[in-house]
């Protein structure tokens, strides 16, 4: 999952990857603060865990859609039409199902806050 924070100097949005599923896991992994360098101005940014937010990965939908289009074209040429009519919606539906799961993960991460104590 990719997590985002804003730089206090230039207000640029920065990101970093983590395997943490929620803020509790992120707190165990990194502590109460995130220390990252801004990619725009180079300032070291110190942010609380609660100031970090998650966004779903849009590349998953783009790559899955392109892959689905390629598979659908291959199926149209190599399978009979009556079978292709049933398979193509499933091929295009798989990337949207994967993106929805990613969106739910990001939403679950953003809903939970940790105490600063």
TrEMBL record:
Keywords: Membrane, Transmembrane, Transmembrane helix. The chain crosses the membrane at residues 59-77, 83-101. This is Cxxc_20_cxxc protein. It comes from Dokdonia pacifica.
């Amino acid at each position: 999952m990719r997590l985002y924070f804003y730089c206090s100097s230039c207000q640029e949005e920065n990101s970093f990857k983590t395997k943490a599923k929620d803020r509790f896991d992120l707190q165990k992994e990194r502590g109460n603060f995130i220390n990252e360098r801004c990619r725009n101005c180079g300032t070291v940014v110190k942010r609380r865990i609660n100031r970090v937010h998650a966004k779903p990965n849009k590349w998953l939908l783009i790559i899955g859609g392109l892959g689905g289009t390629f598979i659908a074209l291959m199926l149209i040429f190599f399978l009979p039409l009556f079978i292709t009519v049933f398979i193509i919606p499933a091929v295009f539906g798989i990337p949207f199902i994967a993106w929805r799961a990613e969106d739910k993960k990001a939403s679950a991460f953003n809903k939970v806050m940790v105490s600063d104590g």
